[in-house]
Write a structure and sequence with these properties.
- The protein has about 475 residues and is an alpha/beta fold.
- It has three domains: about 210 residues, FAD/NAD(P)-binding domain; about 120 residues, FAD/NAD(P)-binding domain, CATH 3.50.50; about 110 residues, FAD/NAD-linked reductase, C-terminal dimerisation domain (Enolase-like, domain 1).
- Helices cover about 30% and strands about 25% of the residues.
- The protein has 13 helices and 22 strands.
- The strands form five sheets. Strands 1, 2, 3, 4, 5, 6 and 17 form a seven-stranded mixed β-sheet that branches.
- It is globular, with a radius of gyration of 24 Å.
- Bound molecules: flavin-adenine dinucleotide (FAD).
- Flavin-adenine dinucleotide binds next to helix 1, strand 2, helix 2, helix 3 and strand 4.
- The site of flavin-adenine dinucleotide (FAD) has 35 residues, from helix 1, strand 2, helix 2, helix 3 and strand 4.
Length: about 475
């Protein structure tokens, strides 16, 4: 019987990073993954394929709309099969890269579905039904999440799709209706709008991207509306029915009604994308065999990644907190370091969020709404990209940077940005906040000119009222 110091169930950003870190620290480690490739949701059907499609579709739209104004003449044509192919090639290269990293760090990949079989034991079942038992001093559950469903609406991955189906459409729909104005819905809605679809977003709440700063969310909705997306906010979806001609499905009729009451509305879609969040993958793990119950939504409760059963840990989407790859990765490192007797730790106050659209939205720390609710006195510095020289040179002036700092100590409490590629720049503030920086620290740090990063500095200057370039 195979025996390990640590066995991880699930090979996503939580699981694969845990296996790599365990190998680095000299622990005998194995990762059980049932998918044919490592990398989990993130590499296979999440972060990476969506960013590959966002990048390609962004360039396509840029070429069509903006090249002429930049003095570039070109005949632009969409080659969707090639766009999908380059996406798949990237995914394959990256998932193979994880296999290489496993070998490099002497971590085993055990192929198959894992389920617990009492403390310290896991049974792995392969596709052909064969079973093997593995023993481990520590077991880490990193089984991630899957798209949430709406009762009564069946995803067929052709006409009614979830994020996985939306990444793989073989044709641009004439009308894509997205249920849910969260990050995944708006990113994938942006891809298909750029590729020619009319996009309508139906959302239960009366705002987009819940969790983001309200002012930024409002500006973001305005930007997407200007690009041609239609928003129907405060609407509860009540049903979806396939429209058929004989045996052929022609589209979907989606019905929704105002949350506050009022007449129902039905719109005709070619494709409906259900993007209403994700739910943890905990069914089938036989948690009862180790005395664990999930919460009503299926999440596993932990205290610093420890479950209440000794030697059993949980990280990533299967536990509470933001369902993000970098959160899973940080938890993986900290969890394995604790297992190895080190002082692993995750700072949950500094987990950035990014929407990789055009413009990007990026944030870290507290929103204005959270600071107000907590009664924290804060000062604000703001700087628009329209006053940033590089943004102007690039004709990319949409958006702003907002820095929130403690009114007494000047410590940075939150940063909220909307603008071109701000997702690439939020890391600067993550580092600053990890070091407990004051806004003045950023304001007095030399930034290269001409870059969009200067807007981050000018916003920090604004906290003390000395923004110089606006
Ligand atoms: C379209 C989309 C875009 C996204 N974009 C981003 C982004 O830009 N940035 C970001 O930070 N996050 C993004 N996310 C979220 C991100 O993918 C997840 O937060 C992240 O993958 C969670 O990592 P995880 O390791 O907890 O779980 P997962 O990545 O879900 O991995 C869990 C793995 O466990 C395996 N598994 C489950 N049960 C078993 C079992 N019993 N035995 C063996 N294996 C099992 C599954 O097959 C899966 O491979 C996106 C998600 C989607 C869907």
């Amino acid at each position: 019987m195979a025996q390990y110091d640590v066995v991880i169930i699930g090979g996503g950003p939580g699981g694969y990073n845990a296996a790599i870190r365990a190998g680095q620290l000299g622990l005998k480690a194995a990762c059980i993954e049932k998918r044919g490739t490592l990398g989990g949701t993130c590499l296979n059907v999440g972060c990476i394929p969506s960013k590959a499609m966002l990048h390609a579709s962004e360039l396509y739209e840029l070429a069509k709309k903006d090249f002429a104004g930049l003095g570039i003449k070109a005949a632009i044509e969409l080659d969707l099969p090639q766009m999908q192919k380059q996406k798949s090639e990237t995914v394959t290269a990256l998932t193979k890269g994880i296999e290489y990293l496993f070998k490099k760090n002497k971590a085993d990949w055990i192929k198959g579905a894992g389920r617990l079989d009492g403390p310290g034991r896991v049974i792995v079942t392969t596709d052909d039904g064969a079973e093997q038992v593995i023993e481990a001093r520590n077991i880490v559950i990193a089984t991630g999440s899957e798209p949430s469903k709406i009762p009564g609406i069946e995803v067929d991955q052709t006409h009614i799709v979830d994020s996985t189906g939306a990444l793989a459409l073989s044709k641009t729909p004439d009308h894509l209706v997205v249920i849910g104005a969260g990050i995944i819905g708006l990113e994938l809605g942006s891809v298909w709008r750029r590729l020619g679809a009319k996009v309508t977003v139906v959302e239960f709440l009366d705002r987009t991207i819940p969790g983001a700063d309200g002012e930024v969310a409002t500006a973001f909705q305005r930007a997407l509306t200007k690009q041609g997306m239609t928003f129907k906010l405060g609407q509860k979806v009540t049903g979806a029915s396939l429209v058929k001609s004989g045996k052929t499905v022609k589209g979907v009729n989606l019905t929704f009604e105002p949350v506050k009451g009022g007449p129902a509305e039905t719109i005709a879609a070619d494709v409906v994308l259900v993007a209403v969040g994700r739910r943890p993958n905990t069914a089938g793990l036989n948690l009862a065999s180790v005395g664990i119950e999930t919460d009503p939504r299926g999440f596993i409760d932990t205290d610093h990644f420890r479950t209440k059963t000794p030697g059993l840990w949980a990280i990533g989407d299967v536990t509470h907190g933001p369902m993000l790859a970098h959160k899973a990765e940080d938890e993986a490192v900290a969890c394995i370091e604790l297992i190895a007797g080190k002082a692993g730790h995750v700072n949950y106050d500094i987990i950035p969020g990014v929407v990789y659209t055009w413009p990007d939205v990026a944030w870290v720390g507290k929103t204005e709404e959270e600071l107000k609710a907590a009664g924290v006195a804060y000062k604000t510095g703001k700087f628009p990209f329209s006053a940033n020289s590089r943004a102007r040179a690039n004709h990319e002036t949409e958006g702003f940077v907002k820095v929130l700092a403690d009114a007494k100590t000047d410590r940075i409490l939150g940063v909220h940005m909307i603008g071109p590629q701000v997702g690439e720049m939020i890391g600067e503030y993550c580092v600053a906040m990890e070091f407990g920086a004051a806004s003045e620290d950023v304001a007095r740090t030399c930034h290269p000119h001409p870059t969009r990063s200067e807007a981050l500095r000018q916003a920090a200057m604004g906290v003390e009222g000395w923004t110089m370039q606006a």
